[in-house]
Specification:
Layout: H1 6-10, E1 33-36, E2 52-55, H2 57-63, H3 72-92
Antiparallel strand pairs: 1-2
């Protein structure tokens, strides 16, 4: 079951970049989109929207390898840290939920 959510994608509008690659991030919330982190299950496929981060256009270009900057392994860490911060925001906004164990 894949999680594709227009509400989650639209929630990126006007947000701050959560990737924040030093020397790359443009800090422009007008360019922020929901950028998928990692690969999908096949060529040209994206992962679920829950595996994404709010990213400015500059950070998005780096994590999608359209622009080269620094060490790609370190940039991937910035993307995953951004994903964690984005998931926290989505939880606060009620766009995702974690069911109770009971």
């Amino acid at each position: 079951m894949s999680l594709i959510s227009k509400k989650i994608r639209n929630s990126a509008r006007g947000q701050q970049c959560q990737v924040r690659i030093p020397g790359v991030c443009n800090g422009n919330s007008e360019t922020v989109v929901l950028a998928h982190v990692g690969k999908g299950s096949g060529m040209g496929q994206k992962c679920d929207d829950i595996h994404a981060t709010y990213a400015c256009s500059a950070c998005h270009d780096v994590i999608d390898n359209r622009t080269r900057a620094g060490d790609p392994r370190i940039n991937r860490l910035y993307a995953y840290e951004g994903m964690i911060r984005t998931q926290s925001i989505l939880l606060e906004q009620g766009l995702i939920e974690v069911p109770s164990a009971c």
